[in-house]
Amino acid sequence: MPRLSAPMGDDLRQVLGKSGEDVACGELQRRGYAIVARRYRTRAGEIDIVARDGTTIVFVEVKTRRHDEFGEPLEAVTARKQRKLTLMALDFLARAKPGAVPCRFDVVSVKWGERRGPEVEVVKNAFLAGGWA
């Protein structure tokens, strides 16, 4: 089981986030996704993972938690976050120019247990782009 400890100078929250992304990538690859990019940066922010699931481009938001004090990880993907992810996905598509391919948004929840490894939940089609004004 991976340990969650921060080297000197690193923020434990950043270490937790990176560890969650590592676990999410492993789970997505186990499910047949091909990882295209990690931490894709735009002016609006960062997409955790861009992957391909067959011919579909998948924009993946990873939410990692050590406990439920701040709610379930999936609850953190608010309407505001969905709008930002949509804008960042449009940036990726404009730069990558993949042509007319299907796209979707998935969310991966990673919960680290006290004495066990991470619990991973992958939600396909977690939300639709364009459902906002």
How would you describe what is shown here?
Helices cover about 30% and strands about 35% of the residues. Strand 4 and strand 5 (about 120-125) form a beta hairpin. The model has no long low-confidence stretch (mean pLDDT about 85). A five-stranded mixed beta sheet has the order 1-2-3-4-5, sandwiched between helices. The protein has about 130 residues and is an alpha+beta fold.
CATH architecture term: 3-Layer(aba) Sandwich
Main β-sheet, in a few words?
A: 5 strands, mixed
Bin the strand percentage.
Answer: 35-45%
Main-sheet strand order equals 1-2-3-4-5
Q: Give the tally of β-strands.
A: 5
Fraction of residues in helix = 25-40%
Brief account:
28% of the residues lie in helices and 36% in strands. It is of the alpha+beta class and 133 residues long.
